[in-house]
Amino acid sequence: MFGEQTKLAILANAIRAIANEMGAILVRSAFSTIVREARDCSTAILDAHGNVVSQAEMIPIHNGGLSEAFRASVAQLDISGIGPNSAILLNDPYAGGQHLNDFIIFQPVFADEVLIGWVGNTAHHLDVGGGGAGINIDATELLQEGIVIPPLLIDVERDLMGGAIDRLIFANVRTPEVGRGDFYAQLAANRTGIERLQQLAERHGYDLVVRAMAETLDYTERRMRAAIATIPNGTWTGEAWIDADVRGDIPLKVVATVTVADGAMVLDFTGTAPEVHSMFNSSKSSSIAAAISAVRCLLADKDIPANDACNRLIDIRLPEGTIVNPMPGRPVRARIAVSYRVLDAIHEALGKAIPDRVPAQGFNSTTGLYLVQERPNGGTRIYADVLGGGYGGAPGYDGAHALAGVLSSSRNTPIESIEQIHPHIRMLRYGLVPNSGGAGEWRGGLGFTRAIQVLEDNVVLSYYSEHFLYPARGRMGGADGALASLKVIRGKDVIDLPTTAVMTLQKGDIVQLTVGGGAGWGDPAKRPVELVERDLEQGLITAEFATRHYPQAFKPALVA
């Protein structure tokens, strides 16, 4: 009825649907709000060689590094004797992992006793032990950030479900019930993927399924080459900075030199700042995933499948001993901050080659916010959230408001879900911040503010954030976005905190986080008057802001 190519295309779409179903199972089965609500997790299908063939539309920085984790794992393990009950488990950032909170699980898929592929996923775990619940901002080595799991080849029935590996891991976790719930949600997602792939193989034959995986990768490579070929040949350099190291005041620079030649690309990060002793290092797999995502953002073809063939034509060079590829043992808890600067530096470089495709900078940071309370009975309450900001404007559209950045794509956790399971805190305010998006022909998206009141004593705040000192930068004449801040309001006193800190709070304290907006794109004087008026009507900007940035739209009625 169908030709072979049509069958292969149908199977490719079926494989993608399986990855998406795995993602739905993981989210719906998880215990923690950070997975169940924020969806800080990812799922994927890999071929028998460990190449990601298809991934759910979830967290780009997770999926983009899964094949790195697989390759690093098989380099250390003997997988020649694997069977249906085998699994590979790891979180080691120096073995293809991201940071210690991200547990990665791969499981093989057999059809007629033939290995046809793997399923895999990542989920961010609420607590992984280490030097303190929440974020140990003073960690100077990886071991202080939590339990390190090198690639382990395990037997699911023997080692998990109360077995040795299960007991070892969760003896090192402060919230074992939540951790186990998320861990077994990961296994449930993989089990679904295994069953669906086996059903495909039974229906169509495993040879055709394997060929569909290979054809999916080759098809992606062809489209990727054609998309890169629309960028002029040449070499350009871009730079980006994070605010500073922990308790420092000197910005840390990421440098990207991009060379495009006939449908292929080299990304060279020579000149990037040396590794630091703090958590502001990006693990290699995170940097690679960020670089690939940065390029894909700018390609004219927006429907290229997201898989490992996207990497075939991009040579990524990450000098060892830098903040984008630190030496083993360095802490990496806040690796996302540097990963976003990888994206920004690439965009800055390519903005010189294809200016009409490159947006202004977004807030492009993740704020990791923890409010932890040790209970008298020995239990621990941990409120954790991952928060974004405004997106940058771009030719033809304004930036989006108050969203996780493109590398994360986590969802905003509903206040009801937070308060339901965290009785030690209460949300007082949560809303957009007017004027926080940079002005431009196309304005930046707004940041938001969130005020959290502490209802009990013995609560510790720990966090990391970005853009407290240096804003998201405008492009093509657009204005910068607003800065972020974090304050603790204690009675009549307002305590301003730096980009990252730890502080013991008192009952009644209010933690007020404000994240910045995205920057504007293009000359603000070119913004149509009707769009300025719309922003005023919607409360996105004030009359004073309009008068200052959009003189073409100034009318006495606007400020009356």
Overview of this protein structure:
This protein has 560 residues and is of the alpha+beta class. The chain is 29% helix and 23% strand. The chain has helices at residues 4-29, 33-36, 60-63, 66-76, 156-159, 164-170, 176-204, 206-228, 284-298, 335-350, 415-421, 529-537, 543-549, and strands spanning 41-47, 52-55, 86-90, 102-111, 114-124, 152-155, 234-242, 252-261, 264-268, 314-317, 367-374, 380-387, 425-432, 448-454, 459-464, 485-490, 493-497, 500-505, 510-514. Helix 1 packs antiparallel against helix 7 (176-204). The longest helix is centred in the middle third of the chain and has 29 residues, at 176-204.
Helical stretch tally? 13
* Strand adjacency order, main sheet: 2-1-5-4-3-6
Number of extended strands:
19
What structural class is derived from the secondary structure elements? alpha+beta
The average pLDDT is 94
Give the low-pLDDT segments.
none
- The proportion of residues forming helix, as a percent range, comes to 25-40%
N-to-C CA distance: 70 Å
Radius of gyration: 24 Å
Could you state the oligomeric state of the chains shown? single chain
Major β-sheet annotation: 6 strands, antiparallel
Strand content: 15-25%
Principal-axes shape call: globular
